[in-house]
Amino acid sequence: MIRVIVVDDDPLACRILTRMLGPDYLVDAFGNGEEALAHFRRQGAEIILSDVKMPRLGGMELLARVKEINPEVPVFIITGHSSLAGAVTAVKNGAYDYIAKPFDPDDVLARINRALKERRLEGTLAFYRQEQEQEQERHAPLTRNRRMAEVLELGRRAARSDSSVLIQGETGVGKELVARMIHHCSPRREHPFVPINCGALAEGVLESELFGHEKGAFTGAVARRTGYFELANRGTLFLDEIGTTGNPFQVKLLRVLQERCVTRVGSGTPVAVDARIIAATNQNLDEEARRGVFRSDLYYRLSVVTLQIPPLRERPEDIPLLAGHFMRLYRHINPRINGMSEEGWRLLERYDYPGNVRELENIVERAMILETSDLLTPRSLLVEGGAATGAPEEEPLRMEEAERDHILRVLRSCNGRKLEAARILGINKTTLWRKMKRYGVEEGEEGG
Questions:
Q1: Whole-model pTM?
Q2: Which CATH superfamily is domain 2-117 in?
């Protein structure tokens, strides 16, 4: 439960607030600021309600001490009408709000709920900012290919404006990475980058996730939910796999883009939003729009600037650059590996990468786990179905044995959790199950 500290030297005020909040909150009441501060140091709290004038540490000093310990905790100042000026001063000094005596239950609960909601929203935004910084540090668009360099330069130029950008390319070419680069180069970089995979959600769920919903809007909507459009306010909203959406959703999305406001599911009140839109697809959206499969008016709204990312097989000069980057990225898995053998490089350069950059990353990550020497070799550079195109034909059995051992090691490191193991291996759960069956890996064997 949410913990609330109530501080007032009037026992009646403490009892009233405790009774008022009791059904929904865990309330601890104290008659002076010293006891309340000691309790806060020991156990913390999500909300503090404090009177101003009290013996043994008054409300203003308690406010200052709490802010030193945790500046994120909302502190409400309890005040009578005669001391409203003091409450205003407290708010200027960092109090979240004030609560007036005599207490109005609806008003008190509404103010507390607003504070909690804003704190949750700030926490979510902080998460996205941290994720953005980590991703920016973890990945950078790397290329020696002229076409790819031109795409990135166009993306950087597009970043200066708020115009919508449509990124097209095969699965795994790095569309989200380019979208993050655009956001990072834009004036919105200090605000959140919020990605959502439109193809991973049913249309009704997607609408709720993007636009938000009110409590009771549908079965299971037990609380109001802030949508991704609002979370991305003043930042960038990345709509991946936009081509998978149906016409009803496209109509609603077009309206949001035109009116710059969203209406939560179950609400009739529009909320203004200011989010830059970057969309991505692995389909030819221009052709889909001509055929009437995708709304042409939405297509033109999304494709003010269009970036076409070439597949990895058309930029072979990037393979060693990216492979070296991923080897450095995953060196912590196997620190003794200090390079790749000549045979390994030739193998990577001959493969055509149907999964593009994402597949190359998975190949290198798996190899770092599997390799037993100090160089990555063809033996460890496995891909789904065996080895990369052009692998020596005389080694299939040894390769299969190595892959079986590798799968077992990963499964054991995940304590038999197949979904997590499949993610590390860069395959889906069904493919992992097939490989386990093919190699005779029994249930329970993977647990060690």
A1: 0.58
A2: Response regulator (3.40.50.2300)
